[in-house]
Amino acid sequence: MASQKAAKYTCGRTHFAIISFMSIRHLTPLDRLLASANNALRTVAAPAGRPARPNPAEHIIDADMDPREKAHAAGLMRVNHAGEVAAQGLYQGHAAVARDRSIEEQLQHAADEEFDHLAWCEQRINELGEGVSKLAPVWYAGAFAIGAASGMLGDKWSLGFVAETERQVETHLEEHIAQIPPADRKTHAILEQMKSDEIAHATKAVASGGAELPGPVKLVMKLTSKVMTRSVYHL
Question: What's the pTM value of the predicted model, to 2 decimals?
Answer without folding.
Answer: 0.77
